[in-house]
Specification:
Two copies of one chain form a homodimer. Chain A has 186 residues and is mainly beta. Chain A has a single domain, classed as Electron Transport, Fmn-binding Protein, Chain A (Pnp Oxidase, Chain A, Roll), CATH 2.30.110.10. In chain A, 12% of the residues lie in helices and 46% in strands. Chain A contains three helices and 15 strands. Chain A has helices spanning 55-63, 76-84, 153-156; strands spanning 3-5, 15-16, 18-24, 27-33, 36-40, 45-51, 65-70, 98-99, 108-109, 114-125, 129-142, 146-147, 150-151, 159-162, 165-175. Chain A has a seven-stranded antiparallel β-sheet with strand order 4-3-7-10-11-6-5. In chain A, strands 2-14-15 form a three-stranded antiparallel β-sheet, with no helix packed on it. Chain A has a two-stranded antiparallel sheet with strand order 8-9. In chain A, a hairpin with a 2-residue loop joins strand 14 (159-162) and strand 15. The longest helix of chain A has 9 residues, at 55-63. The first copy, chain A, is globular, with a radius of gyration of 18 Å. The two termini of chain A are 17 Å apart. The interface between A and B is large, with 107 and 107 residues.
Chain lengths: 186, 186
């Protein structure tokens, strides 16, 4: 049970792999990101950490809109490509087919099973990164990836990111807000 | 490829299951959370969304320190229990063995493979939730769960959270910043 100290480092056990979509100087651009999660229930919000120097940030700042797109494991090549090259150097507008939703300026990757359309709520200057918080305007999902009105993880087959490696979701191990009913005091 | 609109809802494809540790009125308390990710690389930071009414928040506000603890799939019962009952109603200080690190007031669950010790950096009022951002003071990890100085996902066996269900990490599907090299323009 003894623990050792590894020093401070940016660590989280498991993370989603998403594509941040933004129009930069009138053209759709997609960058890969893993430092993303839900930020609020009501109103629904998400957040994503973006390096200050990123091309994508220019577009978010300009339009105050962006999207988070959830790719499938089968889209790992296109997804990872968006993490290898900067939009400042290469036009990435053709990697995915862009569609627009109710905000009008947040490009979304049509091929990705789920796209989260966001309006910029706030950006927090943390140092090297901005923690970009977005109010969810709409969730767009492929009909084939939806069950009972919600995105279905088994149909989406999302990419998990952890320590420079991609994984897929494994076995279901239990129900949240239920498994703990078996707890007995030590 | 056609997408349907599901309406705004708090959604992220995959999330980590963590235990937020805080001393509340002098006693360690642990709450379960999934809305957590890395917020910054330099300095290293994490963030976690916490409902404003949570007992745990009182402790974070008071001490300006907290921890994020990563449980294994084998600890799902204790972990989920911490999400079923509030520390305001039941003393949860005995669910895990608490240890303290360099900050002195952030209790960490000794039994969890990894504990992230944090100093409160900022909390952003998003509505129902506060997005709590912490500067990482230290990463404490069980020696048996470390490879080359870093927490090892295969040894940790962390709990993924998605839509009220727990999963374990599945197969490795590729290397990040590498898989995309196979990309060819359409």
């Amino acid at each position: 049970m003894e623990k050792i100290r590894l020093g401070p480092m940016p660590y989280m056990s498991v993370m989603p792999t998403v594509l941040v979509g933004a129009d930069v100087m009138g053209k759709p651009n997609y960058m890969v990101a893993a430092w993303a999660t839900v930020a609020c229930m009501a109103p629904p919000m998400v957040c994503v950490a973006i390096n200050k120097g990123r091309y994508t940030w220019k577009g978010i700042e300009e339009n105050r809109t962006f999207s988070l797109n959830v790719p499938s494991v089968s889209q790992a090549v296109e997804t990872d490509h968006c993490g290898l090259v900067s939009g400042a150097r290469e036009d990435k507008s053709g990697v995915f087919t862009s569609m627009y939703g109710i905000l009008g300026t947040a490009p979304m990757a049509a091929e990705c099973p789920v796209s989260i359309e966001c309006e910029l709520f706030e950006s927090v200057d943390c140092g090297s990164h901005l923690l970009v918080i977005g109010k969810i305007a709409e969730i767009h999902a492929m009909k084939s990836c939806v069950t009972d009105g919600k995105p279905d993880i088994r149909k989406i087959d999302p990419i998990i990111y952890a320590q420079s490696t991609y994984y897929r979701v494994g076995d279901r191990t239990g129900e949240a807000f239920s498994a703990g009913k078996k707890y007995r005091k030590r």
